[in-house]
Amino acid sequence: MAARNRTEVTEFILLGLSSLPEMQPVIFGIVLAMYLVAVIGNALLVTVAHSDTKLHTPMYFLLSQLSFIDIFLTTITVPQMLVHTLSVNRTISFNCCMAQLFFFMTVGSMEGHLLAAMAYDRYVAICDPLRYSAIVSRHLCLRITLTSWVVVSLNSLLYSVLVIRLTFCGNQVTHFFCDITPLLQLSCTRPVVNEMLIFTEGVAVVVSPFFFILGSYARIGVAIMRMHSLAALRKALSTCSSHILVVLLLYGSVIRMYLRPSSTYDLDQDRQVAIFYTVVTPMLNPLIYSLRNQEVKGALRRLGMKLCISDWLSEKYPLLL
């Protein structure tokens, strides 16, 4: 029966978040607002981290990379979803779907690796502060970032090639973008190899940074317990709190979406988790790091003052600028 239903799929139909026509304008307005906040907030963090000399440190280099990743992650999926929300035609070509899958998996995996690098930075800063500048450098962070890009790109390429080789019995994707889970659900046969990769190689590439983060914070916890200074304790907790919150937001949704048996998949719930992962988390990350970080808030104030002075000078002395 399955063999008779096999067809060569040249395009997919993305069903979106909801099939109710009256919900489409509401979804469009809410998602567009969150998308704009996410892009503007993260772009502002990238600008501040690169323009303010006081933030030219390894930690803020990694933070700027994380903000860049968040912009890329949400832009891969949301603009297309917004267009489809107000459109009758919700198709995406096979090649564009596979490209979207590759870039989404690459950028999503990269976010975990950056958070692991940031955890190592915090570990050295708290547990070995006297040697911090000798151990953690901008050059080291750059090497870690480039190596991580290579690893996650190869991992995503492997997944994408395996999905391309599948035979599909339909083209209606119960999602608002091309993700691996709903695509596997369209396969005519159970893609055992793909599922095994998710729970083996996928765990090694995607979840190993999470275990590295847990190990780093276990060492940080021991160091904090040994601190006899209340001021040092508060500083250590303040340094780690924003990062811990971002890690919980990311891996809570990743584990919920991907690292579970296929028999428990609920594509409707997965769409809700996916909108949290692709829009809400990138929107919250810059808010978390700016509201709870005195250095970032100070840099934002200095940037605001520079812009105000520049506007005043351009108004009073236009010939000088």
Describe, in plain words, how this protein is organized in 3D.
Belongs to the G-protein coupled receptor 1 family. Residues 41-289 form the G-protein coupled receptors family 1 profile domain. It is a multi-pass membrane protein. Its main location: membrane. InterPro entries: GPCR_Rhodpsn (IPR000276), GPCR_Rhodpsn_7TM (IPR017452), Olfact_rcpt (IPR000725). The chain has 321 residues and is mostly helical. The protein has 11 helices and 3 strands; from the N terminus they run βααβαααβαααααα. The protein has helices spanning 24-51, 58-85, 94-127, 132-135, 138-164, 180-185, 192-199, 201-225, 230-257, 267-291, 294-316, and strands at residues 11-14, 91-93, 172-173. The chain has a 3-stranded mixed β-sheet with strand order 2-1-3. The longest helix is centred in the middle third of the chain and has 34 residues, at 94-127. The chain starts with 10 loop residues before the first strand and ends in a 5-residue tail after the last helix. 36% of the residues are buried. Mean pLDDT is 82; it is low at 1-6.
**How are the strands ordered across the major sheet?**
2-1-3
Poorly predicted runs: 1-6
Shape: globular
SS-based structural class?
Answer: mainly alpha
**What is the mean predicted local confidence, pLDDT?**
82
Return the string of H and E elements: EHHEHHHEHHHHHH
Task: Give the count of helical stretches.
Answer: 11
Say how many strands there are.
Answer: 3
Largest pleated sheet: 3 strands, mixed
Specify the helix fraction band.
over 70%
Percentage of residues in DSSP E strands: under 5%
Rounded to an integer in angstroms, the radius of gyration calculated over CA atoms is 22 Å
Main location: membrane
Family: Belongs to the G-protein coupled receptor 1 family.
Domain G-protein coupled receptors family 1 profile: 41-289
Organism: Echinops telfairi (Lesser hedgehog tenrec)
